[in-house]
Amino acid sequence: MAEIVSFRKEADRTDGLLLRSLRDGVLRLVLNDPPANVLSIALLEALMAELERAEADLDVRVVVIASTGLVFSAGHDLKELTAHRVDEDQGAAFFGKSFRLCADLMLKIAHVPKPVIAEVDGLATAAGCQLVASCDLAICTDTSTFCTPGVNIGLFCSTPMVAVSRAAHRKQAMEMLLTGETIDASTAKDFGLVNRIVPKQYLAQVVSKYAAVIAGKSPLTLKIGKEAFYRQLELPVEAAYDYASRVMVENMLTRDAQEGIGAFLGKRKSEWKGE
């Protein structure tokens, strides 16, 4: 049986802000604040807590972030932000807290040593698009749409820009940021925001298949590889090769690499120890 956990929302809201289930090494975190699944402080904190928990949980091999409703996520809770304009500092401290927490969450997705897959069905806008771009893989339905529309309301999507500009090609990222226009799933794939597009009825099935395949790999190898992937991206090419070569040597010395190579040569199934 899958474990189901609901996080409590603020006192004036209902239960079930974030749903959690763990089965066969795959942790599903489902945004459950329809209709917009906004990234409120409460939801950001819940997601952060779950990723920190997953980081240390040996039973978690892969994390999937999904949602309920017609909108994957509309980004920051503008009503929550606007309510703090009456603060003495006109909301500056709360704005800083919100944007910093969101940035920390995106960094946590990159740093958690488990692959994170975005399962997208619906609109992913602003920080919601940032969330998709920050995940290691993204699979969406053929009716999903994406945008960074801050420019339309006088608030440039500067923090979403960080993730989007690293996932999408540079000029396509600028197109999204400067126009604020919504792009369809096919365009998002062309831009580099998503890996695959599938019919709605097959989304969960395809994501589950991806997750199961990845969960069957050596957890230590996945940890080593994910960390190396993001570190080498920021290095000049020669330094990247030097770094990657050192990582390969360290990886070769692990028991899982010895087991995997031995199993391949011996034509048998590998038995991973995570060592």
Descriptive report:
Belongs to the enoyl-CoA hydratase/isomerase family. May play a role in fatty acid biosynthesis and insulin sensitivity. One of its GO terms (molecular function) is hydro-lyase activity. The chain has helices at residues 41-56, 78-83, 92-111, 127-134, 158-167, 170-179, 185-191, 203-215, 219-233, 237-252, 255-265, and strands at residues 5-8, 15-23, 26-31, 62-67, 71-73, 116-120, 123-125, 137-141, 145-147, 183-184, 196-198. The strands form two sheets. The chain has a seven-stranded mixed β-sheet, with helices on both faces. Strand 3, helix 1 (41-56) and strand 4 form a beta-alpha-beta unit. It has two domains: 5-215, 2-enoyl-CoA Hydratase, Chain A, domain 1; 219-265, Lyase 2-enoyl-coa Hydratase, Chain  A, domain 2 (Orthogonal Bundle), CATH 1.10.12. The longest helix is centred in the middle third of the chain and has 20 residues, at 92-111. It is α/β, with parallel strands linked by helices. The model is unreliable at 1-14 (pLDDT under 50).
Chart the SSEs and their pairings.
Blueprint: E1 5-8, E2 15-23, E3 26-31, H1 41-56, E4 62-67, E5 71-73, H2 78-83, H3 92-111, E6 116-120, E7 123-125, H4 127-134, E8 137-141, E9 145-147, H5 158-167, H6 170-179, E10 183-184, H7 185-191, E11 196-198, H8 203-215, H9 219-233, H10 237-252, H11 255-265
Parallel strand pairs: 3-4, 4-6, 5-7, 6-8, 7-9, 8-11
Antiparallel strand pairs: 1-2, 2-3, 9-10
Helix pairs in contact: 1-3, 3-4, 4-5, 5-6, 9-10
Function: May play a role in fatty acid biosynthesis and insulin sensitivity.
Keywords: Fatty acid metabolism, Lipid metabolism, Lyase, Transit peptide
GO biological process, one term: fatty acid metabolic process
